[in-house]
Every structure is written in structure tokens, then in C-alpha cells.
Amino acid sequence: MRKTMIALSILFFSVVQTNAQLGVMKLVGKNTSNYTIGFGAFIKAGFPASEGSDVTLEIGADIFLLNDGYGSSDGTIMCPLKAGYRYMLDGSSKGFYVEPQVGFDLLGVTSLHDANGNQINLRYHGVVFAAGTGYLFEIGRAPFDLNLRYETVIDHGGSNNFISLGISRFISFSKRGSDY
């Protein structure tokens, strides 16, 4: 069932013409000081719910490398699938917004080395919660999204938490009064 959901999600997003959607992020919390700045790529689509709000769907991949002396094979990767509600503060289709999101981490892997130098891969899945804010604007007729968010992936009583700064070209499947 899980593989079917992943395949359907990939098919859904590959049908949509997308542009680069990138983020720079930092893991925060206990035991994260050895992680480098992370990078992520994601696809985000919006479905207008009203003139000043969208229901959003996002799938992405976030990579954080570990500086532990064993090279670039150590680190964490997460692939969250999230749904959210973006509310425009001025009620229009451009400007500042807030966006809570909830979802599921489809794939989570943390690669480490034990005391003997052997690589260990810890796999996890879990619920994802995110809270973000941002600014929608246009360059020409193309809508862009500059955003900041806090995200947490919860699994087995622990969590991975990070702060992300991203820029993306936003995709909407129907039109309101404007070009969004």
C-alpha cells in the first residue's frame, strides 16, 4: 500500500509542470550541532479554497550531512508528504501568509558509524507537523513563494526538528480573480 501511495504521488506531481523549488535548512535541538546546513527540494501545489486561502499539498526530500570524520555518507534524509492550509493575511492572492501543515514522513534514514567504524542505518517514519509563514509575489506573470518554516518529524518518542528558508515557484490548479 505504501509503495502504491508513493508511486501515485510521484505520478501526480510529474504530470504538473514544475520549476525548481529549493530550501536551505538547519536541524535544531539535542545532538544536532555536528550536522551541516541541510538542503531540500520539494514540489508544492495549491488548490484555491477562497480568494485569500489555498489548500496545499507538498512532497519533498531534505538532506542533512553529519560532520563526524567518516565522510559524506553519514547524515539524515527525510521525505515528507504534507497537506496544509495557506491563509493570506490581507485576503488577496499575493502578500504575506501563514500556513500550518500536517503529514507523514514517507522515508527517513539516519546513517551513522558505531564505535567500531561500522555503518548503521536507522530507518524511521512518522507524523510531520510544520508551521510556516511567507510572502507570495510575482516576477513578470510567474508567482513565487519566499518562505520560512519550522518542521518536526515525530517517531518512536523522538523527533527531528528543523528550520527552513525556501524559495519556490508556486503552482495553482485553478484561477481566482488574479493569476494565482
What is the average of the pLDDT values?
81
Q: Report Rg.
A: 17 Å
Task: List the strand order in the largest sheet.
Answer: 1-2-3-4-5-6-7-8
The low-confidence runs, each spanning 5 or more residues with pLDDT under 50, are 14-20, 176-180
Structural class: mainly beta
Separation, N- and C-terminal Cα atoms: 34 Å
Per CATH, which architecture?
A: Beta Barrel
Instruction: Report the β-strand fraction as a percent range.
Output: over 45%
Counting structural domains, the number is 1
Order of helical and strand elements: HEEEEEEEEE
Largest sheet geometry = 8 strands, antiparallel, barrel
**What's the number of helices?**
1
Shape: elongated
What do we call the CATH topology?
Answer: Porin
Helicity level, as a percent range?
under 10%
Count of β-strands: 9
At the first level of CATH, the class is Mainly Beta
Overview of this structure, please?
It is built from 1 helix and 9 strands; from the N terminus they run αβββββββββ. The chain is mainly beta and 180 residues long. It has a single domain (2-172), classed as Porin. The chain has an 8-stranded antiparallel beta barrel. The protein is elongated. Residues 14-20 and 176-180 have low confidence and may be disordered.
Give the gist of this structure.
With 180 residues, this protein is mainly β. The protein contains 1 helix and 9 strands.
Q: What is the topology?
A:
Blueprint: H1 2-15, E1 21-28, E2 38-50, E3 53-65, E4 75-88, E5 95-113, E6 119-139, E7 142-155, E8 158-169, E9 171-172
